[in-house]
Structures are given as C-alpha cells and as structure tokens.
Amino acid sequence: MSYSDDGNGYFTRALDAEDRGELSQAETAYRQAIELFKETQQTQRELAACHYNLGHLYVVMNVRDKAITEYQRCLEYFGQITDSSKPKGRAHLILGSLFVEDRDYPRAESHLLDALGQYLDAPHEPKDQAECYVNLARVYNATKRRAQSVTAYNRALDFYQATPDSQRDQSDCYTELGIVYQYLGKMEESAAAYGEAARLRQQASHHHRHHKHKGSDS
C-alpha cells in the first residue's frame, strides 16, 4: 500500500503497523505524523488523535509513564476542541485507571471525577461509566472512605447491568464489594456480595461454554 508523505499518510502508516502488531514502527510513524501536523499547523483534532493513539500504544507495550504523558498531551489538545466530550472522558478514565495502578490516588480521583463530568456532556458507553465507578471505588477503599466505595461499586453495577455480556465484570465488582463490606464489619452484606459474585461467575462460564460450543457447530 502506498502512503502520502504528509501527516495523514504517516498516521495511516501508524494505524496499519499497529494492526500488524509492529508496535515500534507504529510508534515511529505516530511521532512523524505529529511533527508533520505541527509543521503544517494542522488542527488540534489530528494532534489529539496522534497523542491518544500513542497513549494506547504505550499501554499495550506496558510503558506506563509514557502512556500517562501521551494521554495528558492529548487532553491539552482536546481542551481546545468544543465537541470532544467523549474522547476527553475516555482519556480521563484511562489516566485515572493508570494512576490507580500506580497508587497515586489523588491524581486518580481527579481524573476519574473529570471523566464523570464529561459523561454528563455527551452520551457514553455504559461500560466506560462502570469502569470509571469501579476505579473510583478502589480509590475510596484505598483511602479508607468505605461508605463512598460501596456507593461507587453499586453505581458501577448499575452501568454493568446495561452492558451486554458483562457477567464476569459484575462478578469481579461484587467480589471487591464483598471485601469492602468486610472492612465495614457488615458480614451479611459481604456474604451476599460474594454469593452474587459466584453466581455471576458461574453464569459467565456457562455463557462462554455455550457460545464456544455453538461456534464449533457452525
């Protein structure tokens, strides 16, 4: 396939290299696209997309510090675009979850709350909103705000229930909720949460086996 030698050409090169699993080539092509977009004073949208995709690339490559830098840069550009609530929300969610993994709870909470703010401005996937609340619940639990953690887990479950095939995610959510109830000394609620987690895990396993069997018949 032939590519143009402008920013769009290198952006397409990067996407194709990423699809082939050639991640270092994709990284180089995204960097080249950024330089060319800057030279031609391209709109902020293209630059935001390059940094966003680079962030995703670094998450896949497990280079977390670089991923964080790229998502922060993409947010700087998204901040200059009026109709960008959806990608902004997603970038804040990913940054929040990365900071949770780093145990940087103040920054995690800030980004997750910013993500929720973006969700108010534009329609978002229920799964994204569920993941946001799960990560917030982890922040609240880690900072000993257990009652807020319970509320956040329950909000996450509301959104997971609007997400198809999310039994395994719901099961994980109930397991974590059970742990929080234990901290609070609410043993009945904890047992109920663990029981629901087991039921959903079994349901997810049955659903997976059924679809696997169905696929082998076709």
UniProtKB/TrEMBL annotation:
Report which superkingdom the organism of origin falls in: Bacteria
| Pfam family name, one | TPR_16
Q: Transmembrane residues, as ranges?
A: none
Name the PROSITE patterns on file: TPR (PS50005)
Q: Which stretches are TPR repeats?
A: 171-204
The protein's UniProt keywords, in alphabetical order, are: TPR repeat
InterPro entries xref list: TPR-like_helical_dom_sf, TPR_rpt
List, alphabetically, the PANTHER family matched.
PROTEIN KINESIN LIGHT CHAIN-RELATED 3 (PTHR46284:SF5)
Q: What is this protein called?
A: DUF2225 domain-containing protein
Which organism is this protein's natural source? Answer: Kocuria carniphila
